[in-house]
Design goal:
Elements: H1 3-22, H2 25-32, H3 36-43, H4 46-62, H5 66-74, H6 76-89, H7 91-99, H8 106-128
Helix pairs in contact: 1-2, 1-4, 1-6, 6-7
Length: 144
Amino acid sequence: MDTSKRIYLAARREFLRYGYHASKVNRIANNAGVLRCSVHYHYANKKGLYKKFLSELIIEFMNKHEEIHTFYYSRKADYLWFMLTELHNNRAMFINTLNAIDRQDWKSVFIELILKEHQYLTLVFRLTGQSILSMNTLLPDLPD
């Protein structure tokens, strides 16, 4: 696997786990097995990686190819958690980054996903006593 792909996959795990603000470029580099300067060489900065991640997320969510669709929907809880916490903790940058993506129908994808999971989320929030506003930035551990 090439360096750029390893960095991207490490960044994806980092953003899903910590969100944008709590993610660290050093941790991304360590998890990708590269030096920090390699991250900056391939993606300029953390914001560049974040934009790439969100672009891929939107494009692949909308892709009708069954393998990709199955992968994302099999991990929908992780992605849904990420989207909700980013909307709460990093709303302006999250929305601005999504608006810059070529696919302007990203809103319908998120709305569809959230509506499908609404009953499940309502149950989880009732059982745990949490609300969207009480969610913290640290996301649950994700398997590799």
